[in-house]
Amino acid sequence: xxxxxxxxxxxxxxxxxxxxxxxxxxxxxxxxxxxxxxxxxxxxxxxxxxxxxxxxxxxxxxxxxxxxxxxxxxxxxxxxxxxxxxxxxxxxxxxxxxxxxxxxxxxxxxxxxxxxxxxxxxxxxxxxxxxxxxxxxxxxxxxxxxxxxxxxxxxxxxxxxxxxxxxxxxxxxxxxxxxxxxxxxxxxxxxxxxxxxxxxxxxxxxxxxxxxxxxxxxxxxxxxxxxxxxxxxxxxxxxxxxxxxxxxxxxxxxxxxxxxxxxxxxxxxxxxxxxxxxxxxxxxxxxxxxxxxxxxxxxxxxxxxxxxxxxxxxxxxxxxxxxxxxxxxxxxxxxxxxxxxxxxxxxxxxxxxxx
Length: 355
Ligand code: SAH
Ligand code: SF4
What we know:
Blueprint: H1 2-7, H2 21-29, E1 38-44, E2 50-57, E3 62-71, H3 78-87, E4 106-110, E5 114-116, E6 131-134, H4 137-151, E7 159-164, H5 174-188, E8 195-199, H6 203-209, E9 219-223, H7 229-235, H8 244-251, E10 262-268, H9 276-289, E11 293-299, H10 313-325, E12 330-333
Parallel strand pairs: 4-7, 7-8, 8-9, 9-10, 10-11, 11-12
Antiparallel strand pairs: 1-2, 2-3, 3-4, 5-6
The protein binds S-adenosyl-L-homocysteine and iron/sulfur cluster.
């Protein structure tokens, strides 16, 4: 079954030719089906990004989550990418050349882990949904398979990165999230060195993550988003439960691979988190953490009803330059697909139970 679903990307029990025909018939008669979340709507951006509404059915309802395809990755993840290049798997010498009829040479898929989110970050559109439900491991891995299939990705040849940064908080759906990673690594054949999971700082989740064996552990990104507990508690109320020091202490338990770094994501909110003194404070905080780390800056993407403003390009540049001057490796994550509501923190709107 795993071979059929995750290697051959079969969506119909009748096509599971790895099982004998009489067995397939018996399974069908007993009511078994096979399948995966289905792409039911596609939004295409001028920059090549595609946002998908992916339908996840259970016995009672069909809900949609969002998955995003970003050809050529995104600016901020470039740091991730060049890094994995150094340590990740390489093309086998002498193997057939990559088919060149693709419009992209590498790509990143942004994957959802829950329908909605319970965390309530004040700047995030997904928060407005509240948590509808957890996705199953099959639904999380299935989103990826649906996109690989649509894009004709050749696993093992094409450079595809996964970021678990879509709707939801992966570490509040920990068991299903990690089960999905194991499916994606062991059955689909993707490398955990090309995967990054982002968390808002769920300490018990990070504790568990620290125990994962390296052969299935993705890279870790922490949504820092503020220079200190006071400001972070305002923009991310969850900080009152798990403050910055508790998060850092737990992140230190993760046994990083050689050259691996932890990413700190930092959303720049105009006037609230994007000032020069904020940059200095962030640099101090990151340096004092003692962690091999880098910072991914994200200019806030607007959404209806969210009371923040986008930072000016000058503020973004000033912030970046200060971090670099203070010795912190810093990347700027380019917004992708803003015109189709696919950029960070813009995934929301599309939860219409159809059954
Ligand atoms: N729940 C996880 C992963 C999904 S959010 C987490 O919070 O880390 C992925 C990233 O998008 C986070 O770093 C978050 O801070 C950021 N983000 C959320 N809303 C945003 C917005 N409106 N503009 C830019 N980034 C945003
Ligand atoms: Fe949830 Fe992440 Fe959005 Fe916060 S930023 S509400 S944790 S999806």
